[in-house]
Design brief:
heterotrimer; A mainly alpha (about 725); B alpha+beta (about 325); C mainly alpha (about 210); B: about 325 residues; Immunoglobulin-like; five-stranded mixed beta sheet; 9 helices; C: about 210 residues; mainly alpha; Four Helix Bundle (Hemerythrin (Met), subunit A); about 0% strand; disordered N terminus; binds protoporphyrin IX containing FE; binds copper (II) ion
């Protein structure tokens, strides 16, 4: 062995032993494990009971359809969002209990109920999950679904790689979840500290879990970005010039350029941690010629672009929602595009602001202070442009719009506090403090709000019915209230000089604010319940809220020109693009016919189970590496290489949908649309009749009103 | 539609009033340390903080008002005239780029000025004060271990743990290093953060204006003991400081290099009542630590200290009772 | 100003693209591979940046200075082998244009062989260093040094393996669309390794002689 390991190791099981099965002897985990196991059993049972295994395998697990892959990304994201929220509740509860030297301790902790080692794992998992396994999959999922439809494509450039990216992300998420029960997770924070993450200070497997899970998701996201860029550049419908590209697609392009160039740097940063921990090299060690600052540089060279990788699609979503619900063209389209790329470009030159306090010369800090503030310019421009989009519009306050407006207000707060951080002399006072935490949570909530808005906005496109509004509004308002209660006190604590990642708060003067934050957490909890009610009621009453192609009546871009739910091939005939807001332009000119007829055969990729199996092997590879089970590592590597090679010999990867089948599917959609016209439920109450006109011209239904699940989406 | 609009307004007002109330009560309350600077550096920082926030509010408040006005006036059924095709105005675009550009320009200028005033590698504020006072600065060597602060006074050959005593009105110059991982040294009311890194030395400086007790802590995450890695900064008069130094010098404990190796082993000072003090410190301890770490010395965290922390803390508290630490 | 002002006359506008041939598969795949190469270039950039950061005297504690152990002659021989391999692969692409199966197969075989020669030289050199106690574990500088060299060597292994797979696929499928775009991508990959090698040669070997 090249490195000295504390604890036992055996060839068969590596570092794994009974003692490491944490769910057997840590009380909190016993319950968690029981709940998770029950839920898992229930899910398996339900699938078996309803006989859906085959359906699940054929239609979802082996799919290469970009929409379904996107939906699975979003499901992973939502599950992990829930996990991340549970972590947040635990952190807040500990900080609510462990205040002052006289606060009691429970379950073996000196104060509160979590030992420092335990809370360390929780906040690390919280941060990493929220950024890497919640926000990223949610946004990647949305881009996956919407971008091809918005550019009038049937598919993506690399459907098979796309599925692989999904399963790599899934493997990483599974690894993080597994660390809950087997072994433990990193305990130093989501971005890692060197040399704290070296073996002498983090002797367990936690850091290894963190590193490999991160690495899997990084590979997955890079693959995804290649796919999205190639799709946008090469697969736009005829007539879609660059200046007619929908704004969300622009945002996706800029954000994936960031991902493409920055994720490799993260992979290096993590790989070098791995070499230090596995091979005993000295990249980041304090002694022996290592350089711990190198890690900070490499990590944040990825880390800062990464936060813009997350926010740019959110900006794109806002730029789609606000015009639709202002019933007006986006103000300053070209400026918006320029601003996106300016943000992406500048985001490369600011990373040092994450360690202004690392004893750099004043000239260096000045440089990075200025570059960081430069980001504020395009961001500010975007804010103004959204305001001027509403100006002279007709603003409707439906749920997507409400979320977009919430995102806009949070962006103002987050942007201002970001600028305060960028002012380096301020940052000297509160770097590594709660103020920074409050700043980036504002920003992350901008992203979350946009995502919720996007889900509301595009849900009907994918599933053919709208989500209900009543519980959705409860959900919205409790999120607003929760945010107020959690983050206003947090900003105050930031100005109090409270630092991050505390297990125990020594000063009772801070108590009241921490208690207020706990109230906010309660409100968030209530919001979660409303969210579930929102989903449940929506699903239950879906028949009464069926919609046509243009679900909101005022859609503007190409995705509203195909059926809801979107057929697997997206467009029976590829649209020819004539204007920037093509659908709005067609509506203005009365060209809303969506059934041109005369269908042609359609080429589509065939489903394949290879990406899923590859993802599984990557998971076992990462697991083997984490626990240093070398035979498993070797076996998984061999399996991966062999599978990739064997798959490259497979020539039977495509299929053709014959025109009569296309016609059948198209008819089925129209049947469903005429269904609700017959029941007299208007597609959209109070909006322009774009949807209705699209369907009123239809011929009478020819076939039955089959709503078979197979043809959906 | 009307109804939900009312809700929007209602919620917003509620939130705004609540937030404002909280902020006002917050800033005047106890424990909001950054808003009550007591030293030359922190006061300068605070001055620029106010300027920074003020200038930004000049832009942000009108922008927010504009946003609210636009959403209200141009809501469906509102009074605004509807012009669905209007999407470009060169004049507006110029203003829209111009305002942030100018603001950022002004802020950049101020930021650079502020950095040069307080950055520990060029603290103009301290340099000016030193010139004016003509007094030689006090030197303190700070060594962060897992998880305690050792303050060595090299001129006085004494050392204290988790307790810093400095004279009022005299510049204090710190050299900082760490035995194990990165820490971050801060005393919110006196001076901002500087990283404390193993195998390297960093600098910091402060002048305290008033007598009193000020909290200091480690900010960068350094492991399990972080939450207990705080220290008290006691600012006293010059004469009292001399008296304190001689009282410490009378303590029999001394700190040798070997003794330091023992002292630096991982220890979470939970429930610690008294902090070790050393009446004599072997000269050159600070450089010794830097050198040793550069050569690859580490004070490893034992695995059962992390994975079995409950048991570990129990054992440690027993040892504490026996006076082991 | 209207957002539609640039738009087409709605009366004569074409709305649906009938008989649309779809996107150009080979072009898209090649473009995607360029993007992939860009990510790999970023990996190298990060590694070289690390090497620069770790090239100070303080990073070389406990080990020899680069000039004491770096052997530019071996690097020179490696360069010849690799560049010859790239050249022969280029000739394979010329044969591909002509549609000559025998030509393509033969040149690729030769390229793979030259790649193996390169690997042999590289392994021998590194084993020699290890035997003299010059290892990645010695100090920070050597960690970075070996990381770059080994990462590059891994690429060569992948390239050679890819060539062998392509030989099989050519035998099985001839010049199908898949085979052709893969051959084009492999050329890109292989040339890229030569370009990176120039950087390795300059920054690792030549600079090593100077330092
Ligand atoms: C106007 C634009 C922004 C500016 C000027 C800005 C500035 C900063 C600065 C200077 C820091 C470092 C604070 C410190 O660690 O001491 C920071 C931290 C951070 N920012 Fe921003 N920021 C901006 C936008 C964003 C956006 C859009 C996001 C998106 C999520 C974001 C997420 C973060 C995160 C996650 C951190 C802290 C990471 C950590 O330490 O864990 N920021 N920001
Ligand atoms: Cu940043």
């Amino acid at each position: 062995m090249l490195v000295h390991l504390q604890g036992s190791w055996s060839p068969a099981l590596g570092r794994l032993c009974m003692k490491q099965l944490a769910f057997l002897h840590v009380p909190i985990l016993e319950y968690t494990f029981a709940v998770v196991a029950l839920l898992g059993l229930a899910a398996v049972g339900a699938v078996t009971y309803f006989g859906k295994w085959k359906y699940l395998w054929r239609e979802w697990l082996t799919t290469v359809d970009h929409k379904r892959i996107g939906i699975m990304y979003i499901i992973i994201g939502l599950v992990m969002l829930l996990r991340g929220f549970a972590d947040a509740v635990m952190i807040r509860l500990q900080q609510d209990m462990a205040i002052g030297p006289h606060s009691p301790g429970y379950m073996g902790a000196v104060h509160g109920y979590l030992t420092p080692f335990h809370i360390g794992q929780i906040f690390s998992a919280h941060g990493m999950i929220m950024i890497v396994f919640a926000a990223t999959p949610l946004l990647v999922g949305l881009m996956n679904i919407i971008v091809p439809i918005q550019i009038g494509a049937r598919d993506m450039a690399y459907p098979y790689l796309n599925a692989l990216g999904l399963w790599l992300t899934g493997g990483g998420a599974a690894l993080v979840m597994l660390s809950l029960f087997i072994g433990n997770f990193a305990h130093g924070g989501w971005y890692g500290f060197l040399p704290y993450f070296e073996l002498p200070y983090s002797p367990g497997v936690g850091v290894d879990y963190w590193m490999w899970a991160f690495q899997l998701s990084a590979i997955g996201t890079s693959l995804g970005s290649i796919n999205l860029i190639a799709t946008i550049v090469k697969m736009r419908a005829p007539g879609m010039t660059w200046m007619r590209l929908p704004i969300f697609t622009w945002a996706s392009l800029s954000t994936n350029l960031i991902a493409l160039t920055s994720f490799p740097v993260l992979m290096v940063a993590l790989a070098l941690v791995g070499m230090d921990r596995y091979l005993g090299t000295h990249f980041y060690t304090a002694g022996m010629g290592g350089n711990l600052m190198l890690y900070n540089d490499l990590f944040w060279i990825w880390g800062h672009p990464e936060v813009y990788f997350l926010i740019l699609p959110a900006f794109g979503i806002m730029s789609e929602i606000i015009p639709t619900f202002s019933e007006k063209t986006l103000f300053g389209y070209a400026t918006m595009v320029i601003a996106s790329f300016a943000i992406g470009g500048v985001s490369w030159g600011v990373w040092l602001h994450h360690f202004f306090t690392m004893a750099a010369a004043p000239s260096v800090n000045s440089f990075y202070s200025i570059t960081t503030m430069l980001v504020g310019i395009p961001t500010g421009v975007k804010i103004f442009n959204w305001i001027f989009t509403m100006y002279r519009g007709r603003v409707r306050f439906e749920l997507p719009m409400m979320w977009a407006l919430l995102a806009l207000s949070l962006l103002i707060v987050g942007g201002m506090t970001g600028m305060m951080n960028a002012f380096a002399s301020n940052d000297y006072m509160w770097h590594n403090g709660i103020f920074v935490v409050a700043h980036f949570h504002m920003m992350v909530l901008v992203i979350a709000s946009s995502i919720f808005g996007a889900v509301e906005y595009w849900f009907p496109k994918l599933f053919g019915f709208k989500l209900e509004q009543k519980w959705g509004k409860w959900f919205f308002w409790f999120m607003v209230l929760g945010t107020g209660f959690v983050f206003v006190p947090m900003f105050i604590l930031g100005l109090a000089g409270m630092t991050r990642r505390l297990d125990y708060i020594p000063y009772t003067a801070w108590g009241p604010y921490l208690h207020l934050e706990m109230v906010g957490i309660g409100l968030y909890g209530a919001a979660l319940l409303f969210f579930l009610a929102h989903l449940y009621v929506s699903l239950r009453d879906r028949e009464s809220r069926r919609v046509g192609a243009d679900a909101w009546g005022t859609g503007r871009s190409v995705e509203w020109m195909t059926h809801s739910p979107v057929p697997s091939y997206n467009f029976a005939l590829i649209p020819h693009i004539n204007a920037r807001d093509e659908w709005a332009w067609r509506k203005d000119n009365g060209l809303t016919e969506l059934h041109p007829g005369d269908y042609e055969p359609i080429h589509m990729p065939k489903n394949t189970g290879v990406p899923l199996v590859l993802g599984a092997f990557f998971f076992t590879l990462a697991f083997g590496l984490t626990w240093r089970i070398w035979w498993l590592t070797a076996l998984s590597t061999a399996a991966i290489v062999i599978m990739i090679i064997v798959r490259s010999f497979d020539t039977d990867t495509d299929m053709t949908i014959p025109p009569n089948e296309v016609e059948r599917t198209e008819k089925r959609r129209s049947d469903r649309a005429s269904d609700f016209i017959a029941t007299g439920v208007p597609p959209y109450a109070g909006g322009p009749v774009g949807t209705a006109t699209a369907y009123q011209r239809l011929p009478e239904p020819a076939g039955g009103t089959g709503a078979s699940s197979g043809g959906r989406l | 539609m009307k109804n939900s609009w009312k809700k929007v307004r209602h919620g917003a007002t509620l939130l705004a009033v609540g937030a404002l109330g909280l902020f006002l009560s917050g800033c005047s309350a106890r424990g909001i340390y950054l808003m009550h600077p007591e030293g030359a550096i922190s006061k300068t920082s605070f001055h620029y903080f106010l300027l920074d926030v003020g200038i930004m509010l000049l832009i942000i408040v009108p922008t927010t008002l504009l946003a609210i006005w636009a959403t209200m006036r141009y809501r469906k059924g509102g009074h605004g005239a509807y012009q669905p095709q209007w999407s470009h105005s060169t004049a507006i675009e110029i203003v829209v780029w111009g305002i942030p550009l100018i603001t950022v320009g002004v802020l950049s200028y101020l930021s650079v000025k502020a950095i040069y005033a307080v950055n520990p590698y060029n603290p103009e504020v301290i340099a000016k004060a030193e010139k004016k006072a003509g007094s030689t600065p006090l030197e303190v060597d700070v060594i962060a271990t897992d998880w305690r602060w050792l303050f060595v006074y090299p001129q006085q050959h004494i050392a204290t743990t988790n307790q810093l005593v400095v004279p009022r009105g005299i510049p204090v110059r710190f050299r900082l290093t760490s035995t194990s991982v990165v820490n971050d040294f801060i005393i919110p009311q006196l001076v901002g953060m500087i990283d404390v890194m193993p195998g390297m030395r960093t600098k910091q400086a402060l002048i305290a204006d008033h007598r009193g007790n000020y909290l200091g802590f480690s900010a960068d995450y350094s492991g399990a003991g972080l939450s207990w890695m705080h220290f008290n900064t006691h600012v006293v008069g010059k004469r009292k400081f001399q008296a304190w130094v001689s009282s410490i010098q009378k303590t029999p404990q001394s700190l040798s290099y070997k003794g330091f190796n023992r002292f630096a082993r991982p220890y979470i000072p939970v429930g610690q009542k008294t902090q070790p003090i050393f009446g004599h410190v072997k000269p050159g301890l600070f450089d010794f630590v830097v050198r040793e770490v550069m050569r690859g010395k580490t004070w490893n965290t034992p695995m059962n200290m992390t994975e079995n922390m409950v048991a570990y803390l129990k054992k440690q508290s027993k040892l504490q009772k026996e006076g082991y630490y | 100003m209207s957002a539609h002002s640039t738009a087409v006359d709605p009366k004569s506008a074409s709305l649906w693209a009938r008989h649309y041939p779809g996107h150009d598969v080979i072009g898209t795949r090649t473009f995607g591979f360029w993007l992939y190469m860009l990510t790999d270039a970023m990996v190298y950039a990060a590694l070289f940046a690390s090497l620069v950061v770790l090239s100070h005297a303080s990073n070389m504690v406990g080990g020899p200075a680069p000039s004491e152990f770096i052997n530019p002659r071996v690097a020179y021989e490696e360069t010849i082998a690799l560049f010859a391999s790239v050249l022969t692969y280029g000739l394979a692409m010329v044969s591909l244009k002509k549609g000559s199966r025998r030509g393509v197969t033969g040149w690729i075989l030769l390229s793979a062989l030259l790649g193996l020669v390169y690997l042999g030289l590289s392994v021998a050199d590194n084993v020699n260093l290890f035997q003299h106690g010059i290892t990645p574990q010695t100090n920070g500088f050597l960690s970075a040094f070996f990381a770059i060299i080994i990462y590059h060597a891994v690429h060569i292994v992948v390239g050679v393996a890819w060539m062998l797979v392509m030989l099989l696929q050519i035998a099985k499928e001839g010049f199908s669309q898949n085979v052709v775009y893969r051959l084009i991508n492999l050329r890109l990959f292989w040339h890229f390794q030569a370009v990176i090698w120039v950087f390795v040669f300059v920054f690792v070997y030549l600079q090593g002689v100077v330092l």
